[in-house]
Amino acid sequence: MKLKKIELANFRNYEKLELEFLKNIICFTGLNGQGKTNIAEAVSVLGLLSSFRTNSYTEMIRFGEKYFFIRGEFYNNSGRDIEVGISFDGKNKKIMYQNKKISRFSQMWGKIPVVYLIPDESIITTGPPNSRRDFCDRLMSLTDAEYISMLSEYNGVIKQKNKVLTEMKSGNNSGADIISVYNTKITETGSGMYDKRIKFIQDFLPYFSEIFKFISDGLYTGDIRYETQMDKDNYSVSLKKMLVSEKYSEIRRGVSYIGPHKDDLDFLVNGRSLRKFGSKGQHKLFLVALKLAGTEYIKSVTDEYPIFVLDDLYSEIDERKSLQVAKILDKDIQTFITTSNSRIIDQLDPNVSQLYRIENGKCAAVF
Ligand SMILES: Nc1ncnc2c1ncn2[C@@H]1O[C@H](COP(=O)(O)OP(=O)(O)OP(=O)(O)O)[C@@H](O)[C@H]1O
Ligand SMILES: [Mg+2]
């Protein structure tokens, strides 16, 4: 998927902007606070309908204005043109896909695949298990509609169960039977989710390992393991048993803690835990490799590369490894890069890339 044209009106610090993209690598440079991330944000909002920075469309309206508007012209690898328009007037969102109004976000899901990497996502390798589950769930959701519905059904049951557990903790004793009903559902949907996650990691891992080794200049090997309290070879039976044996403990604690919503991914570098022993640069490289592998995974499933958005890519990566990253990006995948590091610009080849300098919401083409 490629974005060939973007138009912004009153979006963040852009009053008006129109850019045409003809190359595969599009780099935005400039000093801090000038609007680089704002463009990266607009590109991902066009594809995913949500921002990586906020859940509020209101924040994206230019200060002092009443609405914003973003429009994108894309084309996919079978040469089909796709047009998306998003506007928001402070109250109503209007989303147009091929000039038709979209009433539900889910109608757009996966149509314009975007993978982004933003500095806040360092939490994926450093943070609590839910950040790693989210990474995996999000990537799987882009390619597997069945997984999206399993996940939303499962999360719905956990939410209901937690509500009953909270009530029981505060003295209401009438919920034990309904907890068993929820547990049956958790076993059924939860083991389906587990099967899909294991399959995903199996398919994803070869891409990841190869890319991680390459961008770390052959220095590191990376691995990903699925971590769970359940017996991995007998997940469904083990989940069912644990839900029974821990039922009263869950009631006592007032929270549901048995099931794939508590599973984790263990990230390893040269066989050792990244979280415990990794350096800052190793964390960042691991993350870059996870995202790059994500683009390959999406391509393998859907036959279409997503658009790749890399905000502040080069912070924390040394020069030698950033060269490796640049090499791997040099292929048929459209990549938007923002950086305030002007040295990186020397690595861009004008034959395959476009460079813009941004100053206070104005964007000038360098080449
Ligand atoms: N709704 C808005 N309306 C107008 N300006 C906004 C809005 N939201 C953010 N800004 C401005 O946009 C600027 C930040 O833009 P952005 O995050 O794109 O910077 P950046 O170029 O990526 O900087 P850095 O290099 O520090 O990451 C800030 O000056 C901020 O005040
Ligand atoms: Mg920024």
Question: In terms of topology, how is this protein built?
Answer:
Blueprint: E1 2-11, E2 14-20, E3 25-29, H1 36-48, E4 68-75, E5 81-88, E6 93-97, E7 100-102, E8 114-117, H2 123-126, H3 129-143, H4 145-169, H5 176-215, E9 222-227, H6 235-245, H7 247-253, E10 264-269, E11 272-273, H8 274-277, H9 280-302, E12 307-311, H10 319-329, E13 335-339, E14 353-359, E15 362-365
Parallel strand pairs: 3-13, 3-14, 8-12, 12-13
Antiparallel strand pairs: 1-2, 1-4, 4-5, 5-6, 6-7, 9-10, 10-11, 14-15
Bound molecules: adenosine-5'-triphosphate and magnesium ion.
Adenosine-5'-triphosphate binds at residues 12-13, 30, 32-38, 59-63, 312, 338, 340.
Summarize this structure briefly:
The protein is an alpha/beta fold and 367 residues long. It is built from 10 helices and 15 strands.
What does this structure look like?
With 367 residues, the protein is α/β, with parallel strands linked by helices. The chain has two domains: 175 residues, Rossmann fold (3-Layer(aba) Sandwich); 180 residues, RecF/RecN/SMC, N-terminal domain (Glutathione S-transferase Yfyf (Class Pi), Chain A, domain 2, Up-down Bundle), CATH 1.20.1050. The chain contains ten helices and 15 strands. A six-stranded antiparallel β-sheet has the order 2-1-4-5-6-7, covered by helices on one side. A hairpin with a 4-residue loop joins strand 5 and strand 6. The two termini are 23 Å apart. The structure holds adenosine-5'-triphosphate and magnesium ion.
Look at the structure and name the CATH superfamily of the largest domain. RecF/RecN/SMC, N-terminal domain
CATH fold label of the largest domain = Glutathione S-transferase Yfyf (Class Pi), Chain A, domain 2
What structural category characterises the helix and strand content? alpha/beta
Write out the distinct hetero groups bound to the structure.
Answer: adenosine-5'-triphosphate, magnesium ion
CATH class of the largest domain: Mainly Alpha
Poorly predicted runs: none
User: Termini distance?
Assistant: 23 Å
The largest sheet is: 6 strands, antiparallel
Q: What is the residue-averaged pLDDT?
A: 93
The share of residues in helices is 40-55%
Order of helices and strands: EEEHEEEEEHHHHEHHEEHHEHEEE
Number of structural domains: 2
Task: Output the number of helix runs.
Answer: 10
Give the overall form. Answer: globular
Major sheet: arrangement of strands: 2-1-4-5-6-7
Q: What would you report as the Rg, rounded to the nearest angstrom?
A: 22 Å
Beta-strand segment tally: 15
- β-strand percent reads 15-25%
Known CATH architecture of the largest domain: Up-down Bundle
